[in-house]
Amino acid sequence: MKKLKNTLKKIPILNKALRHVYQKINPNKNTTNYWLQKICANRPIQVLQIGSNDGISGDPLNQLIKENPQWQVLFVEPIPDLFEQLKRQYGANKRFKFENAGINEDGHQQKFYQIADAAFQEVPDLSEDYKQIGSFSRAQVEKLSTRALQKFIQALDVNCRTLENLLTTHKIETIDLLHIDAEGYDWKILSQLNLEKYQPAIILFEHLNLEERERKEAHTFLMEHYFIFAMRIDYLCIRKDTVDVGDFRGVGLIMVE
User: Fold this and answer.
1) How many domains does the chain fold into?
2) What CA–CA distance (Å, rounded) separates 257 from 220?
């Protein structure tokens, strides 16, 4: 078996194909991707992604969006440079809509903090990952930065919308998959969702940078209609009427009660 594995490693195309077949036969149910595939793939759905970044870096939806041409997607990204990269990543396609704005509670322009480009010229061997750090909270950016980067934190004035205004403007009547990645602002965005009107089959949002109070409020907000699973830095929330309890048998996911 070891010799076979070593042989396959020398044939990347064959190795990749066999891994793909194996994963189809024995899927890992403990991953976000498994549940996204199971519930949302191969059917027409409406996706809302808030905090789309450049469309690639750390994005759990990128490959699925490309593999599912039935998906309609509204991408939301406040930073102009990242927004342009995002549009280039997906290109002109009638199934995609783009909004260059942040989502906040009053829809007014707001300061957005990020690491300035100068840092990547002046700080030796600085990881490109720092280009993905951005938040309405300066404290959050400071928390995710090294001491040497503190002086490079810059504030941008970004246009904002409320969630309701965003959905009305783009005539979004249904949401099947909601993904939020907003560096600590996730609950403030999710709390605006009208669950009487919109009940996405899956809600995926980052909990890592939330205060404990916000986590509890999010649990209360969702628990009646959703199974909530802690997936490293995210909460994977699956609407209860889309799955059977038996689907989770033998799965090692941590359910939030």
Assistant:
1) 2
2) 10
Q: What is the DSSP letter of 233?
A: T
* Sequence-ordered list of residues with C-beta below 8 angstroms from that of 174, at least 6 positions apart, any chain: 46, 198
The answer to whether residue 15 is domain-embedded is no
% pLDDT > 90, the chain: 71
- 174 and 57 in a single domain? The answer is yes
Centroid of chain to Cα 81 = 19
**Does residue 123 share a domain with residue 101?**
no
Q: Which of 1-10, 97-106, 165-174, 195-204 has the lowest mean pLDDT?
A: 1-10
Read off φ and ψ for residue 17, nearest 5 degrees: -65, -45
Three-state DSSP class for residue 120? helix
**Cα–Cα distance, 150 to 79 (Å, whole number):** 19
pLDDT surpassing 70 at residue 126: yes
Q: Supply the range of the domain harboring residue 121.
A: 110-158
